[in-house]
Design goal:
Strand order of the largest sheet: 1-2-3
Largest sheet: 3 strands, mixed
CATH topology: Aspartate Aminotransferase, domain 2
CATH superfamily: Type I PLP-dependent aspartate aminotransferase-like (Major domain)
Shape: globular
Order of helices and strands: EHEHEHHH
Radius of gyration: 15 Å
Number of domains: 1
Structural class: alpha+beta
Length: 102
Amino acid sequence: MLFSDEIHCDFIAEDSAFTPVYSLDSEAVKKKAVVFKSTTKSFNLSAFKTGYVYAHDTDVISKIREAGHVEFANTLGVIASEVLITMQKNGSTKSVLTSMRI
């Protein structure tokens, strides 16, 4: 198994690049990787608690659920995340993310 904590992927040095684990062209990654992400961190949405786990392999997701992972969707968090992800794809959030950096 490969566990990739990508929760802080949006907070990297300006002269660096982030490489998501699923961008690696490898069958092993596609079958065995589990990614942790969070729009809570990316967009400073701490009150909305919008972290999530992702895996390509449905058997891996089933095992996570069987181990007791509770799925809960915060409606406002989902809406805020969707809006900000859309803005990010359109290039509108760069100044927001830059201003949130310490």
